[in-house]
Amino acid sequence: MQQHPRPVPGPAGVSLPSSPHRGYEDAAALLLGCSMVGLGLVLYGEARIVTSGLAGLALLLGYATPLDSGLLFFALNIPFLSLGWRRMGARVLLRTVVAIAAVSLLARYSPAWLGIAHVSPLYAALMGGILMGMGVLALMRHRTGLGGINLLAMDLQERRGWRAGYVQMGFDALVLLGACFVLDWNQVALSLFGALVLNLILAMNHKPGRYLGVS
After folding, report:
1. What is the per-residue pLDDT across 75-85, written as a single tens digit (0 to 9) for each?
2. SS3 assignment, position 213
3. How far does Cα 106 stand from its chain's mean position?
């Protein structure tokens, strides 16, 4: 069935036609976004720092326990999946589950595929934050989250107009507070720097009405 552009709010209340994504575009964004997030997590794991959202919480728990952070990421997202079903529908939920599984697998197996002899923690924080920020942005613009807080942030932005980046920042503050009890102060500082890089990318680029593509 042919999709017809639907109007979205424009400047001063003017309705502008949106541009529907095609299936292959959604699939490409899913592959690109998950790959970028997965590589960013590898850099953060090598530097032993944390990132935003449930991925950051999974990393932190992985440092503090013998549990695998990739498996923790998948498990932590399970309670939030009902939000995708209730608020965003089955298609968004399906894409989100696929994205969570892909990132979990990449986080678990990438260290075996990619050997890093040395990485500067500052470089890891900066480039990891950029990679994950752009990856999450690609997913969100195709109505796909990484579950948990990203899915909640998308929901609040669509329903209430709250910027997704700022919603994410509130949760990140709690993760960083927990990191103070597990990591050294310099690792916490670099984690904060990386989180700011990631969330500034989202805050500047994922605003209501700025991107007109729909999935």
Report:
1. 998 877 776 67
2. strand
3. 14
d(CA 19, CA 7): 9
Tell me the three state secondary structure of residue 8. strand
pLDDT at 81: 78
Q: What span, in angstroms and rounded, lies between the C-alpha atoms of 200 and 111?
A: 28
pLDDT, one tens digit per residue, over 163-190 is 876 777 788 788 889 999 999 999 999 9
Give the DSSP H/E element, type plus range, for residue 190: helix 185-205
Q: Which tokens belong to 200?
A: 């500034």
Q: Which two tokens stand for residue 31?
A: 């592959």
Partners of residue 211 on adjacent β-strands: none
Strands 19-20 and 213-214 come out as parallel
- The per-residue pLDDT for 89 is 72
Which conformational region is residue 213 in: left (phi greater than 0), alpha (psi within -120 to 50 degrees), or beta? beta
CB 60 within 8 A of CB 175: yes
d(CA 146, CA 192): 20
Could you read off the pLDDT of 19-69 as tens digits, one per residue? 777 778 888 999 999 999 999 999 999 999 998 788 999 999 999 999 999
213: its two tokens: 């593509």
Q: How far apart are CA 16 and CA 74, in angstroms?
A: 38
* pTM value surpassing 0.90: no
Amino acid of residue 118:
H
Angle ∠(156,58,167) on CA atoms, nearest 5: 20
